Amino acid sequence: LLVAEHLASGYRKTEKPFVSSVTSVVAFIRDATDRHGQYWRKSAKEPGAEKELAAIALERLRRLHLIELGDETVRTLPAISRFTPGPTELKSGNGSNPPSNLDPFTK
After folding, report:
1. Mind listing the pLDDT tens digit for each residue in 47-70?
2. Is-contact 7 67, C-beta < 8 A?
3. pLDDT of residue 8
4. pTM for this one?
5. Which H, E and C letters describe the chain, residue by residue?
6. Cβ neighbours, 10 Å, residue 3
7. Could you tell me if 8 and 84 are in contact, meaning their C-beta atoms sit under 8 angstroms apart?
8. CA distance 63 to 19
């Protein structure tokens, strides 16, 4: 979801297909780990995991016809501009840990 929002914001800024690199998506995930990693599974926070996470996220977005993938490029498609998640609200049953279904990388 974070990658989709990141790419959608690029599309909305230009109002036309936005071309990014796979490397920039990997860097975005690396930065997102600092902000959101506390909610991710342990293996998603290991050094180098951002490459695998980027590949998984981009493949899922490709299957949803939200992006096209080249060798090292990511091209957004118009449908991604409609992707806007609502505000995130974290709740837990015992007040200490967020629900496990918040892991965006769980299959």
Report:
1. 777 888 889 989 999 999 988 999
2. yes
3. 81
4. 0.68
5. CHHHHHHHHHHHHHCCCCEEEHHHHHHHHHHHHHHHHHHCCHHHHCCCHHHHHHHHHHHHHHHCCCEEECCCEEEECHHHHHCCCCCCCCCCCCCCCCCHHHCCCCC
6. 22
7. yes
8. 17
